[in-house]
Amino acid sequence: MRLTYKHKHSYKTLWFGLAGAVVVIVGSILFGYAQAQKQQAEKMNPTKPVPNDTELREKLTKDQYKVTRQCGTETPFHNAYWDNHKPGIYVDIITGEPLFTSLDKFDSGTGWPSFTKPIKSENVTEKRDTSYGMERTEVRGKSSDSHLGHLFDDGPAPTGQRFCINSAALRFVPAEKLKEEGYGEYLSLFQPQQQTQSQRQTGGEQPQAKK
């Protein structure tokens, strides 16, 4: 009788242990899922509130802070996006607000990213700038109030404008990651371009049947 009792006690302990392990595993999975959902929700809200100055100093690099908060200018031809030719959009480094698209980017020969127009005119503001003895038009991010660059009237058609922007004020989101990062509404801008590239990779367009 004593041996039987000991076996029953051992089985009961084993089952309690297994049940506890299952609870821990399920809890870990649910917690991980909740965290993933939270991160996804943050990505799907590209326009984020502006952090305070202390947070910005911690978040931004020295050059990013100098450009966006102190109206600095980065070195031409030695910045992240002056020679970037990939399809995608450029968003505010601080808030994530969409600012420019690669479809409006052109080589101005200045060594800074240049665009013919913003992705939405209401996303940027223009301000008179008389610093350094010059008369210029400063371009700032609407939601972040960050210094982005300057606007000139020597750009190509159709606008004749050149938005000369510092790379340090921007973050580039490639076309293939737009949906993943919460900018899915802009994906349609690049689909015809992506289809053309795909056709080139597969040997060109399919021949049409003769009528």
- SS strand fraction: 15-25%
Q: How many beta-strand runs?
A: 9
Mean pLDDT across the residues is 83
Task: Report the oligomer.
Answer: single chain
Distance between the first and last residues' Cα: 94 Å
* Overall radius of gyration: 27 Å
Helix percent reads 25-40%
Tell me the strand order in the biggest sheet.
Answer: 3-4-8-7-6-5
Structural class: alpha+beta
H/E element sequence: HHHEEEEEEEEEH
Largest sheet: 6 strands, antiparallel
| Coarse morphology | elongated
Write the layout of secondary structure elements.
Layout: H1 2-43, H2 53-59, H3 62-70, E1 88-92, E2 98-101, E3 105-106, E4 114-115, E5 124-129, E6 136-141, E7 147-152, E8 162-165, E9 170-174, H4 191-201
Antiparallel strand pairs: 1-2, 1-9, 3-4, 4-8, 5-6, 6-7, 7-8
Could you characterize the architecture of this molecule?
The chain has helices at residues 2-43, 53-59, 62-70, 191-201, and strands at 88-92, 98-101, 105-106, 114-115, 124-129, 136-141, 147-152, 162-165, 170-174. It is α+β, with helices and mostly antiparallel strands and 211 residues long. The protein has a six-stranded antiparallel beta sheet with strand order 3-4-8-7-6-5. The chain has a three-stranded antiparallel beta sheet with strand order 2-1-9, with no helix packed on it. A hairpin with a 5-residue loop joins strand 1 and strand 2. It is elongated and about 85 Å long. 25% of the residues are buried. The model is unreliable at 36-44 and 205-211 (pLDDT under 50).
Brief summary:
The protein is α+β, with helices and mostly antiparallel strands. 33% of the residues lie in helices and 19% in strands.
